[in-house]
Amino acid sequence: MPPLPFPAAAPLSWYLTLSAVLFALGVAGFLFRRNIITVFMSIELMLNAVNLSFITFSYKLKQVDGHIFSFFVMVVAAAEAAVGLAIILTVFKNRQTLEIDELSSLKN
Amino acid sequence: MLHSPQQLWLIPLLPFAGFALNGLFGRRFSKPVINAIACGSVFLSFLWVLKTLSALGAFSGGLQESYGEHYYTWIQSGALNIGVDFAIDRLTSVMLMIVTGIGFLIHVYAVGYMSHEGGYYRFFAYLNLFMFFMLVLVLGANFLLLFVGWEGVGLCSYLLIGFYFLEKFASDAANKAFIVNRIGDFGFSLAVFLIVIHFGTLDFNTVFAKVKTMPVETSAGWLTAIALLLLVGACGKSAQIPLYVWLPDAMAGPTPVSALIHAATMVTAGVYMIARSSQIFLHAHGALNIVALVGLATAFFAATIGLTQFDIKKVYAYSTVSQLGYMFLGLGTGAFSAGIFHVMTHAFFKALLFLGAGSVIHACGGEQDMRKMGGLRKYTPITMWTLACATLAIAGVPFLSGAASKDLILESAYEFAPWMYWVGVFTAGMTAFYVTRAFCMTFFGEYRGEISTAGHGHAPVDAAHGHDDHAHDDHGHDDDHGHGGTPHESPLVMTIPLMVLAVLSLGGGFINIPKFLEPIFPLHEGESAAWLEWTASAAGLFGIALAYFFYVVAPSIPESIVSTFSIPYRWIYNKYFVDEFYDATIIGPAVDGSRSLLWRAVDAGGIDGTVNGIGSVARRIGGFLRRLQSGSIRSYAAWVVVGSILLIAYAGFSGGAK
């Protein structure tokens, strides 16, 4: 096995812990923030937390699948951001608000 | 013998074209156009029959074998192959001539008869459709095609009985005819299934050729089963005991319909079908005996009812049932050609009787009760003379058409069993009596109707006779010509068909049908004793004389007989209470059972209950679940989180993902 280009100073569990913390932050933001844009950003945060654990496992298992998955996630996230932001803009134009609790007109 | 193609399909298709034209566009046509289409199509069909038959040599000793044409394969399923095939043999030729010839005359008559009626184009469209199906019935070369025609004429019969569908009794009568016929058709279709199972084909030639090689069944086997089921079908269509009850009620239709469908052609379809299947019946003696018994019983009982009726069309209706019984008697005793001969002569004189009755009804402004007629010989001489021909023919006066065929049947009955002959002769006497009675009540004596206010004779039922069966019997429902005044002769368009039919009724007996049908039904060897014929004729003449004496010379005698034998008289007058018996034993339980058990319990309780129960359970579950749909995105997200935590916990506790 060739030597790594950098010293493996941080153990893998740190990366995974970081990923879990970021994901939990994303979940918390999604659940407790009221501004749609923040909620949206929380989703992005969750996606990237997952990306981090993909890369970590890919590195650990010496398999390229995780990398490929993380690229997929980025592509989908980009598309989702484009669509999502467009929706948010339209919502704001129509309703003059970004309060998520007020956007429940589909009910009833 | 090979023939060039004859385009048999034209024969039924011409009336069908008439039906399509009149049915689709008749509302916009004027009456002459409708007449031309309706009568013209049938006349062309008649001409095409003549042309085909002469090309096939039917008039010059040819057509010994059946000639068939194949058009296309209708059903191909495994080994079963059913084609749309038409075939002509000598039996079919007789039926074709009757159906198209008499049919044309009745169409012409109907032009005059229906001229004041609403739904004119509808009437002729139905009539043409009937011709189409009847021709398919007789031309079809397999049982399925026969069945198509069979059901089709049943449908047209239903439509035409219920022609005055705004009147309740007309639609009731139509329903009755249709439902009773369903019973017969059920038997017929079972027979067809049995034939498919045992022969693997429905083609007449193949089936009968196979039957020919089989031994005659002495005990009940499946050939007997097929024959009996066919007989059930024939009993429905040809109004035999126990399914005859629909035919008298079928007189609710316009009189030309009674003449064409319920006397001359459709009701003889059962006779035709049994004659066509003669091979099967000849190999099932038990079934053949039952045919004879059914026929004899029907002939006798219908004749007794005919003695007592006062509605002129009812008399002729029971007479039709009775004459059909004679035909079955002929078939059942093995005289198939005599049965078909009687179909033909009966078509002549019974069509004439009905058309004459129509003319009488027309003359009296819609009155059908013979007690309100009388003395019409002054007003309607042509109708009287033509009706006289028919009356003498059906009464069995020697050398006229009715005697020729009836004597053959009675001779055959004598060889079969002498007691059947004597019952038949007695019935012939009754036949002569009731037709003469109808004739005398109509034409002799003084006119008993109301001269000034005639038109629509809703006379109350004569209370002196103490009967009150179907109240509508005595209403002049059939015709609504709306002209009162004195009785008057019908126009030429109605009387000319009467005259043609009168000639046929007188001379039709000289058309030697049994000889013509010899290739199919071998002639009987040996001469019968001459006294058989003379006894039958004597019975007929005696019946005529007795009726003339009772109703012209000494009109008080019938009433005294009625009052002497009032109990049997009422019994017979009310048709042996057969309708009431069926009501009590079959119809009532069926209706009650349907209502309380099938409708209220099974349908409303079981089926609806299940469906509604499932619905309300679903609603309740939904009502519970809808609380989850708060509309708040964050609560949905919380559900997702809780769900994933539970999933992860489950995966963790159960040993992790593998």
Describe this structure in words.
The complex is a heterodimer of chains A (about 110) and B (about 650). Chain A has one domain (about 15-100): Orthogonal Bundle (Helix Hairpins). Chain A contains three helices and no strands. Chain A has helices at about 10-30, 35-60, 65-95. Chain A is elongated, with a radius of gyration of 18 Å. With about 650 residues, chain B is mainly alpha-helical. Chain B has helices at about 10-25, 30-55, 90-115, 120-140, 145-160, 170-200, 205-210, 220-235, 245-250, 255-265, 270-275, 280, 285-305, 310-330, 335-365, 380-395, 400-415, 420-445, 490-505, 515, 530-555, 555-565, 565-575, 580-625, 635-655, and strands at about 65-75, 80-90. In chain B, strands 1-2 form a two-stranded antiparallel sheet. In chain B, a hairpin with a 2-residue loop joins β1 (about 65-75) and β2 (about 80-90). In chain B, α16 runs parallel beside α19 (about 490-505). The longest helix of chain B is centred in the C-terminal third of the chain and has 48 residues, at about 580-625. The chains are: A mainly alpha (about 110), B mainly alpha (about 650).
Compact overview of the structure:
Chain A is mainly alpha-helical.
What is the rounded distance between the termini of chain B?
86 Å
Mean pLDDT of chain A: 87
CATH topology name of chain A, in short, is Helix Hairpins
CATH level-two architecture of chain A = Orthogonal Bundle
What order do the SSEs of chain A take from the amino end to the carboxyl end, as H and E? Answer: HHH
Explain the layout of strands and helices.
The complex is a heterodimer of chains A (108) and B (658).
Chain A: H1 12-32, H2 36-61, H3 65-95
Chain B: H1 10-25, H2 31-55, E1 67-77, E2 80-88, H3 90-113, H4 120-139, H5 143-161, H6 168-199, H7 204-212, H8 222-237, H9 246-249, H10 255-264, H11 269-276, H12 278-282, H13 285-306, H14 312-332, H15 336-363, H16 381-395, H17 401-416, H18 418-443, H19 492-507, H20 513-516, H21 530-553, H22 556-564, H23 566-573, H24 578-625, H25 633-653
Antiparallel strand pairs in B: 1-2
